[in-house]
Automatic annotation (TrEMBL):
Compartment(s): Cytoplasm
Pfam families, per database record: ArfGap (PF01412), PH (PF00169)
Record's keyword terms, sorted: Cytoplasm, GTPase activation, Metal-binding, Repeat, Zinc, Zinc-finger
Listed GO biological process terms: atrioventricular valve development; heart jogging; heart looping
Protein name: ArfGAP with dual PH domains 2
InterPro entries registered for this protein in UniProt: Arf-GAP_dual-PH_domain, ARFGAP/RecO, ArfGAP_dom, ArfGAP_dom_sf, PH-like_dom_sf, PH1_ADAP, PH2_ADAP, PH_domain
Length: 378
């Protein structure tokens, strides 16, 4: 009993060290689990993933620790493990945080400790995201229906393109050639309804196009994600040769700032309110709206400029309530038009206003002014 209390105190003291105060894998604060095989401190979520391929997981406070196990923790710790297992992580490889979906966190953990992808040793065959070329089959949702069908995808880093075919046979030509320049990829497991669901978004000449895909194998879908990120990173390094990794890495891919349903009326604010799915993209300063959340193309877009450029966002109570079921309004004022949007809950109204004002408060770049000039309100 004396040893148990002494060992528990040693572990709690180790947790006070800055490098051990966050989960070794996702960065969640106050980890209360540990792997005594690796000597790392973990959050509950990551400890569960480790437990699936290693039984050497214990609770810091609830489990019994013997002297040998505690000595392993003292001799290692998160910083030591990072120096070994994350020695050579490519700058474009996505390192998940605690809020990311399970498949990203799990594959990050398996890539580090099972496949040993980042130790700096030469791998054969090399990881696909290092080769500049990748091809394979993904299940893709139809543009006009909800059916997912197998489609062949080919990524070429040299050509900065992602191409997909309606058949495995490429002889009939591609269905689409997507340029990496305007491409984004983000995991959307809940929206797509699959634990490996990935949304690929790109710009066409006239609108934004969404592809919703998944792969049954978790390693394969995360490989696709990092292959896309590798190509995006290569493009950014070419387009901005003086840009640092600190500047470029956040631009590789992004999660959207906020998504959800709101009701929207027309330009005269007398038209019937209709329920629409909204997506707020912080990087492009655009609020897109769709008829439904899995639509391939948007119905319209609202540019979010700064107050100094005559844009404003405020809570609002509309005069007309034709077809309106929700009561918590938002007025988005642009130099060209006013938009009235309605939220179901007051909490959602506050969240949307905060998100929109976050973008509004950021100064506009030359690229933002160019994008603003191309907006055509419907």
């Amino acid at each position: 009993m004396v040893n148990h209390e002494r060992n528990k105190k040693i572990l709690l003291d180790l947790l006070k060290q800055p490098e051990n105060s966050r989960c070794a894998d996702c960065g969640a604060p106050d980890p209360d689990w540990a792997s005594y095989r690796l000597g790392v401190f973990l959050c509950l979520k990551c400890s569960g993933i480790h437990r699936s391929f290693s039984c050497q997981i214990k609770s810091i406070e609830l489990d019994f620790w013997d002297d040998k196990q505690v000595e392993i923790m003292k001799s290692n710790g998160n910083a030591s493990a990072k120096a070994i297992y994350e020695k050579a992580v490519p700058p474009y490889y996505y390192q998940p945080c605690q809020s990311d979906c399970n498949v990203l966190v799990e594959q990050w953990i398996r890539a580090k400790y099972e496949r040993m992808e980042f130790t700096g040793e030469t791998k054969y065959p090399p990881p696909p995201y290092t080769t500049g070329f990748y091809e394979g089959i993904l299940w893709k949702k139809g543009k006009e229906n909800t059916q997912f069908l197998k489609r062949k995808f080919v990524l070429s880093e040299r050509g900065f393109t992602l191409t997909y075919y309606n058949r495995e046979d490429e002889s009939k030509g591609p269905k689409a050639v997507i340029f990496i320049k305007d491409l984004n990829a983000t995991f959307q497991t809940e929206k797509i309804g699959h634990p490996h669901g990935l949304q690929i978004t790109y710009q066409t000449e006239h609108n934004t196009r969404n592809l919703f895909v998944y792969h049954e194998n978790p390693e394969d879908i995360v490989t696709w994600y990092n292959v896309i990120r590798a190509a995006r990173y290569s493009y950014l390094k070419t387009a901005y040769p003086t840009g640092s990794d600190k500047e470029l890495v956040p631009k590789i891919t992004r999660n959207y700032l906020k998504e959800g349903y709101m009701e929207k009326t027309g330009p005269n604010q007398k038209e019937q309110f209709k329920k629409r799915w909204f997506v707020l993209d912080s990087q492009t300063r655009k609020l897109y709206y769709f008829k439904d959340q899995l639509d391939a193309e948007e119905l319209g877009v609202i540019f979010i400029g700064t107050e100094s450029n005559s844009y404003s966002v405020a809570a609002f109570a509309p005069k007309s309530t034709r077809g309106n079921k929700w009561k918590h309004g938002i007025m988005v004022d642009t130099p060209a038009r006013q938009f009235v949007l309605m939220c179901e809950q007051e909490k959602e109204q506050r969240e949307w206003i905060d998100a929109l004002r976050k973008i509004q408060s950021r100064p506009m770049s030359p690229q933002d002014y160019t994008a603003e000039a191309k907006i055509r309100y419907k």
